[in-house]
Amino acid sequence: MQSPSPPQQRPPESFAAQPRDGRTARLHINLDPTSTEPVFSQICAAVKADIADGRLPAGSRLPPTRALAAQLSIAINTVAKAYRELEAQGYIEGRGRRGTFVRDPSGAAGDREVMRFVTTMRSLGVPLEDALEQVRRAWP
């Protein structure tokens, strides 16, 4: 007879705020119901502050609108409006069914990925023109 496996422990909340493995970031937004500022604006301000402070690094996946609305006990459309506003301002980007992510305004993440691709192609002995042709074929 096998002994029962120990229960899995959840990571501390501070870890959940900065996922490194593709998980969704856990946002900690405190809404002030007595404020004259609209709720969607409060959400925008909180997300911008977390981005500026580094608590939401570039590439972090934000919770789906339904999940964040449930967490905050507000309407889904309010969260959707906040996400649209943040996207229009260039802070986040929607990637269809893959989710909504914090943008990298510096382009550093793209630079890192390009360097990784170049390093891999060089290590495989792929000539530059062949690598470029592979990129052209793969580009949608």
Description of the molecule:
The protein is mostly helical and 140 residues long. 48% of the residues lie in helices and 6% in strands. The protein has a three-stranded antiparallel sheet with strand order 1-3-2. The longest helix has 16 residues, at 108-123. It is elongated, with a radius of gyration of 20 Å. The termini are far apart.
Number of helices: 6
In percent terms, what proportion of residues is strand? 5-15%
Roughly how many Å apart are the termini?
54 Å
Number of strands: 3
Compressed to H and E, one letter per element, the order equals HHEHHEEHH
Task: Report on the biggest sheet.
Answer: 3 strands, antiparallel
Provide the gyration radius in Å: 20 Å
Strand arrangement within the widest β-sheet reads: 1-3-2
User: In which range does the helix fraction lie?
Assistant: 40-55%
In short:
With about 140 residues, the chain is mostly helical. It has helices at about 15, 40-55, 65-70, 75-90, 110-125, 130-140, and strands spanning about 60, 90-95, 100. The relative contact order is 0.11.
